[in-house]
Amino acid sequence: MNFILDYYNYWIVVFLMMTGFYIVISANNLVKKIVGLNVFQTSVFILYISMGKVSGGTAPILVEGVTQYSNPLPHVLILTAIVVGVATTAVGLSLIVRIKRAYGTVEENEFKNQDDAI
Amino acid sequence: MFILDIVSSVLLIAGVFFGLSGAIGLFKLPDFFTRVHAASVTDSIAAILIIFGLLLQTPFDLNTAKLLFILTFLMITSPTSSHALAKSARHGGLLTLSEEKEKQQEQTH
Amino acid sequence: MGEFIDLVLLAMLALTALRIIFLKDLFAVVMLFGIYSFLSALIFVNLDAVDVAFTEASVGAGISTVLMLGTLALTGRKEKENTHSSILPLLVVCITGAALIYGTLDMPPFGHPDNPVHEHVAPRYIEQSPKEIGLPNMVTSVLASYRGFDTLGETVVVFAAAIGVLALLGIRRKEDEEAPESGLKSHHVLHVVAKIIIPLTILFALYVQFHGDFGPGGGFQAGVIAAAAFILYTLVFGLSKAMAVVGPKFLKLMASFGVLLYASVGLYSMYKGGQFLDYNKLAVDPVAGQHYGIIIIELGVGITVFAAMLSIFYAFSSQAERSNIQ
Questions:
Q1: What ipTM was predicted for this assembly?
Q2: Which residues of B touch C326 (CB under 8 A)?
Q3: Which residues are CB-neighbours of C208 under 8 A, at least 6 positions away?
Q4: Sign (positive/negative) of CA torsion A81, A84, A89, A92?
Q5: Which of B70, C79, C138, C209 has minimal Cβ neighbours within 10 Å of its Cβ?
Q6: β-strand partners of C201
Q7: Is residue A47 in some structural domain?
Q8: Which of A52-61, B19-28, C125-134, C181-190 has the lowest mean pLDDT?
Q9: What is the DSSP letter of A107?
Q10: pLDDT class for A117, splitting at 50, 70, 90?
Q11: What is the tally of structural domains in chain A?
């Protein structure tokens, strides 16, 4: 039981990562691919934050009478990663809008053939 | 403050019960408008009960003020969003269950 | 008890992600993604990462969901049937998953205080940051001062994303007579409530911006919350009115001004004799210099993030040729 509790976080993270990965490689619609990419990214965030947690600690804000803090370094890294993730999503979604305007569809099998026909 | 703990637990459990009833209603109820009603029950009553239950847990300091602010903003925005949902559905032409049955009866006659 | 909450929340997250694979209605997929984001924000709070939870809730569940819904308005709601078989992706995913799980067995167990990740730099930051910087929020002091250069890079990434979206989509400004009236004209309740909520949201964004030194908060969250207030205004009152209040040119100016403010703090500290972004040289007392530096650069970050998010939203919503919603 202790063994499961020790590694439960990481196994769920691997499951979420693989779900996101599956959506990215097998979805036909481009918007769903971007959703899968975001699912993948958020699972990686959970991995880092799980690594930084100290049991018995508290949030890394200085309070009177608290000696044990969780590690603030992964938090900083993930703050940056979240913002970069939303920037990537915004550019990806605008690319999808342009693809729709150029090819008339955002289903991958439909416009892949249109490109080859040129 | 044992009595305070008991009152706060009663409020929290009541809030959880209403939240559960909203969730079950979302699946069981037949029509869109009745489902919106079920979801808005969760938004209003469950939020009030849970926040009042939490209010009794903290001493009277900044956290009390923050919880009261959260309650105020939830009370302003949640009924508005349920109203906006129902009104947009009505504008889009969605009929309630009784109106659907009347239309079907008119078509068969 | 904390572990039980952890277990249940992670299981709900896994179920939500699993459901996203099988849905064909993209609107429902985006809503499930919003739920996924909020659940991960709850998990972050449970894992003591309050700043990260704040950012994930506002950025992931707020801005990402809004942008995806905007894209769906332009590209269509339903996904068509998949023509190629899914055996090969399933096989690849299973093999990769098995390899990763085999890798996690080697990791240190969750939550032990003597894990390798808690050695070397982290205890030094936890112990020294009250003396060197003097702020209660250690995440802000690491983000803005010790690793300030990375945060400058992150601000430039947000700025570059705004440039990219504006280059791809652009904000179409038609002549005043042709501009279609958008917005929700007959939703009187929404008009009244929006008028109450929007100023309070902007006030809250300012509170988060300047309170980031003492509690969770900071520039990113504040910029996103302020952008959300103006997005609400655009949705309720129409794009042309919103562009009259905060125009695209002003937003472009503000986005570049935020990055410029951040970089010029670094240059000013070089002018005063220190290194780039060395806040100790900004005032006579080093700790006061750190406070000045952190407040000014957080302001720059907040301004850039607000302007970038709002410009991206304007670009998306000016593409939609929506008819008048009465």
A1: 0.93
A2: 91
A3: C54, C217, C218, C221, C222, C225
A4: negative
A5: B70
A6: none
A7: yes
A8: C181-190
A9: B
A10: low
A11: 1
CA distance C243 to C252: 13
Domain of residue A93 covers 2-54+68-116
Residues paired with C25 in a beta bridge = C78
The C residues from 130 to 189 touching A (CB cutoff 8 Å) are 130, 135-139, 142-143, 147, 150-151, 154, 157-158, 160-161, 164-165, 168-169
In this structure, what are the phi and psi dihedrals at residue A117, rounded to the nearest 5 degrees? Answer: -75, -15
C-alpha separations of A53 from A4, A60, C44, C203 in Å: 17, 10, 10, 32
The three-state secondary structure class of C233 is helix
| pLDDT in the model for residue C323 | 36
Tokens of C37: 């984001």
Question: Residues of C13-38 as b/e, b for ≥16 C-beta within 10 angstroms?
Answer: bbebbeebbeeeebeebbebbbbbbb
Share of chain B above pLDDT 70, in %: 99
Output the average pLDDT for chain C. 88
Q: What is the C-alpha separation between C50 and C44, in angstroms, rounded?
A: 7
CATH number of the CATH domain containing A105: 1.10.287.3510
Both tokens assigned to A60: 């890394």
Q: Does B91 touch chain C (CB under 8 A)?
A: yes
CA atoms lying within 13 Å on the CB side of residue B58: 13
Reported as a pLDDT band with limits 50, 70 and 90, residue C321 is low
CA angle C98, C99, C105 (to 5 degrees): 90
- Global confidence as pTM: 0.92
H or E element at residue C11 = helix C2-22
Q: What pLDDT digit, counting tens, does each position of C275-318 carry?
A: 888 888 888 888 999 999 999 999 999 999 999 999 999 999 88
CA of A112 vs chain C CAs: smallest distance (Å):
13
Mutate to test the interface with B, among C187, C195, C204, C236 (most CBs of B within 10 A): C187
The answer to whether residue A95 sits within a structural domain is yes
Tokens for B32, please give them. Answer: 């869109």
**Domain ranges for chain B:** 2-108
Q: How many contacts, defined by CB atoms under 8 Å, are there between A and C?
A: 277
Q: Hey, where are the domains in chain C?
A: 1-116, 139-326
User: How far apart, in whole angstroms, are the C-alpha atoms of residue C37 and residue C57?
Assistant: 7
Give me A19's structure tokens: 């779900």
Residue B80 contacts C where some CB pair is shorter than 8 Å: yes
Q: Is C134 exposed, middle or buried (0-12, 13-18, 19+ CB in 10 A)?
A: middle
